[in-house]
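Quick question, first post here. What does this chain look like in 3D?
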Amino acid sequence: MQIVYIAFRLVLVLGLLERMAAETLPPLDGKEPPQTVAELWSSYDPDAEPLEVKVIKEYQEDGLTIRMLTYTIGTFKGVKSKMAAWYAFPAKHEGKLPALIQMHGGGQRAEIHSVKYGAQNGYACLAINWGGRLLERAGEDDPGTDWGAVDATQTGHNGHYGSLLPDDRTIDPVESPRNNNWFLIVIGAKRGVSFLCRQPEVDAKRIGAFGHSMGGKLTVMLSGADPRIKVAAPSCGGCGSAPDSIRKRPNAGVRPKKSALYHQTIDDTPYLERITAPILYMGPQNDFNGILDNVYANWKSLPSKVVNYTVTPHMNHRATAEHVYPGMLFFADHLKGTFEFPATPGLEVRLKNEKGIPTAVLVPDQLGNVARVEIFYSVDSHILTRFWRTAKATRQGQSWGAELPFFSAGQPLFVMANVYYKLQHKVVGYPWMKRAPETFGLSSKMLSYSPEELKKSGLQGSPERSRLIETDFADYQDWYRLNWQNPHHWGAYTRKLKDPAFAAPDGASLALEVRLEHDLTFFIHLQNNNWNAFPGEKSGEYFAQVEVVGSQEWQTIKVSLDDFQPVHERSSEPLRSWGHVTEFGLRGKLTLQRGGKQLELPERGVNDRWSTPRSFRNLRWEGP
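> Answer (accepted):
Ran it through. Tokens below.
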């Protein structure tokens, strides 16, 4: 009996030892959790465990080999975690291929179009399904992403993107960066890089990374944690939290700080300090996740010798084709050597001059290929709702110059520029962006000046207001447009009403001239105090329905505050002032929320079709 008992205990001990040995991350055993990025990753080897790759399905499409597969991420708390992914590469190719790893954004999944995008441009491409959603074309019995005893998804563990605290789905029993979702996903991504390195068609020395939104942050974290990434192109993520220099600005609109340990181990900034590979930031001027001021402040710490930016004007969390295509051009330069990507344009601001008006000087690279330039500036400290004015730029030999007249020396000044180059290199776009633009955009750094700096330079500002907001809408330079070719769901938006130079006089109404040959219903759409741009004020979303009788003549429409209704029932108060409008839009369709249901206006076929061109002019304030 004693022998049986000893044998039983021995089996238990051996089982426990086997389980401990199988753990990807050894327990802390009373040690202090990692305190830095270097400590966090120093003992982790992504090649230490078998990948156990399982190909679920394989397709031959459009000259590509496409595979749905899973691989083992690791073993956590005695249970294996599995990652599902899509993988594609050109079926016919010569020699080893450069490779890309793509990481999807929040609430999304790995998509076939993502790996096709990479493969059709000549890469082996892996898209990892870290969010765990069911893959397209997957059957009910097909294995997918399974995090096992831990959870890095947004469905049951969403709070742990910002938390390091322990719970029943985390690694450590104390506050630790190993409890954070971002850390676990980067482990899964590093294992994805190991997968790419082992594929017979892949050149393991030429691997790049890209991703949008949460995938942009993951791109930065992976690039800072894995030296096998040789080039990176994060989109709308990877900016890092606001440094103190930005937090000190009045009403900057920054997010609150998290724990000190989070900022030392999970925040983007310490990862940026480790990136030596060429890197391209892709994002719009007013993005809520890839906050532009944070990008330009934190990316100064990058040790990489090649740092570029492509910034879409006026948009939030989306981009035009001119600022999407640079991603593949960047990879073509640094993974293939088949393209010469321009250097970041040089930008200088001269505060002191005879006119007392700041001037910007822009010096582009590859001057012979420049198609046009745009110089932007703003006097708004609120990062997310800032209106970027377009300065009139004129060429002066090998540079462009522009005056930057501003409203008041009591405001800050922000300046950046875009250079657009002729696109003469073949790039295959996404399915919804197949048609290549004629040019691609590359952005300068952003320069910023505090009110104190402006005052020291003797600048006084020009406190003149204009009742005329937009004259002829010729190029919508100060607007962004959505679905512009769609005759029903088109829209054009601007933040121009927030600029003090275009502020509404007390008691004014908005007037706009329009010309169209048939009867039409369209909408004026307002965001009020979006992103808490005016602390203490009410926020809301409002619309005014406009009915126009067809005519070949220009007609004036006029709306007052009383003409606007709430879009959502949560906007319980009426619109009382133009002074807190953060976004102004013209659009063909609008979806309302009434009684818990959605109502689309106008109904299809009821004066709702307006094909381009759309003729507007003279948006202005009228009244007292």
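The chain has three domains: 37-336, 346-456, 468-622.
The chain has eleven helices and 30 strands.
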